[in-house]
């Protein structure tokens, strides 16, 4: 499965994908970015070739990954549309830009794929939603798109109608986790632990708890019960969280994010 993958934009997510794919024998990487200094530095670090122009990058690619901001997408696609053809696969990671818009803006000349990755892709632990609804996609293209994003984490094939829910849970989700980590660190400091140690303890707490959840294959409710002794410290804390409706607030927060994602997509 030999192919050239072109990146239009080499920001954080583009860089993560380039690093994930770099060195694979069957994949040739090319890219374009207005920041030539950053692009050239990435070429030194990875097996990436710098294209002289955005149109050149598109012409070289079998798979063209648009790593540009949503508000820039239409203008960039208008610029590169002459370089697209039926043999190419256009991939977008821009939030809120629908498959229909991508097809229209690119002249309906090639299959398009909408992808929603999340920031842990920067360390190879991402979760990406991939929409393969376009009937113009070949089986090989479907497989290759999943291979590309599997290089930075796990991949879930979803219908586009599920993307707002995915965005609310996994796209925005890292912020919820960091929010809770931040609160736990502040609580540890308030309880008397030095800040540096508190940060390390909380980071290890999350890492170890996730490892236990992944390896035990036990429902989270049962794992929670394992820690919750009668009349102990844990049940006191959990009862306080329940009195404050924290569980309901988390659910409401995710649903609010989903509603906002739906608004941005209109």
Model description:
This protein has 2 domains: 3-159, Rossmann fold; 171-264, ProC C-terminal domain-like (ProC C-terminal domain-like fold, Orthogonal Bundle), CATH 1.10.3730.10. It is 54% helix and 15% strand. The protein has 12 helices and 8 strands. The protein has an 8-stranded mixed β-sheet, sandwiched between helices. The mean pLDDT is 93.
- Into how many domains do the coordinates divide? 2
CATH class division of the largest domain: Alpha Beta
* Uncertain residue ranges: none
Count of DSSP H/I helices: 12
Biggest sheet: strand arrangement: 3-2-1-4-5-6-7-8
Helix content: 40-55%
Secondary-structure element string? EHEHEHEHEHEEHEHHHHHH
Q: Per CATH, which architecture of the largest domain?
A: 3-Layer(aba) Sandwich
> Average pLDDT across residues?
93
The SS-based structural class is alpha/beta
Rg for CA atoms: 22 Å
CATH level-four homologous superfamily name of the largest domain = NAD(P)-binding Rossmann-like Domain
Q: Approximately how much beta-strand content do the residues carry?
A: 5-15%
Largest sheet: 8 strands, mixed
How far from one another are the termini? 37 Å
Total number of β-strand segments? Answer: 8
Question: Tell me, what's the shape?
Answer: elongated
* CATH fold label of the largest domain: Rossmann fold
């Amino acid at each position: 499965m030999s192919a050239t993958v072109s990146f239009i934009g080499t920001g954080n997510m583009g860089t993560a994908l380039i690093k994930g794919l770099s060195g694979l024998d069957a994949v040739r990487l090319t890219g374009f970015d207005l920041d030539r200094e950053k692009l050239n530095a990435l070429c030194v670090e990875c097996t990436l070739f710098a294209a002289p122009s955005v149109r050149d990058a598109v012409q070289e690619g079998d798979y063209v990954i648009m790593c540009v901001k949503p508000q820039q997408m239409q203008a960039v696609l208008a610029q590169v549309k002459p370089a697209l053809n039926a043999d190419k696969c256009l991939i977008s990671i821009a939030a809120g830009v629908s498959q229909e818009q991508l097809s229209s803006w690119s002249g309906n000349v090639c299959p398009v794929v909408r992808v929603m990755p999340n920031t842990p892709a920067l360390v190879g632990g991402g979760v990406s939603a991939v929409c393969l609804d376009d009937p113009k996609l070949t089986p090989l293209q479907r497989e290759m798109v999943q291979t590309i994003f599997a290089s930075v984490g796990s991949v879930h094939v979803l219908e586009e109608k599920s993307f707002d829910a995915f965005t609310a849970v996994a796209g925005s989700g890292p912020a919820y986790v960091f929010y809770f980590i931040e609160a736990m660190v502040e609580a540890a400091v308030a309880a008397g632990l030095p800040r540096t140690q508190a940060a390390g303890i909380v980071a290890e707490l999350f890492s170890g708890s996730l490892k236990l959840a992944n390896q035990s294959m036990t429902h989270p409710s049962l794992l929670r019960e394992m820690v919750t002794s009668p009349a102990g410290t844990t049940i006191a804390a959990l009862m306080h969280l329940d009195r404050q409706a924290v569980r309901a607030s988390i659910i409401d927060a995710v649903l609010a994010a989903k509603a906002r994602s739906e608004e941005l997509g209109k």
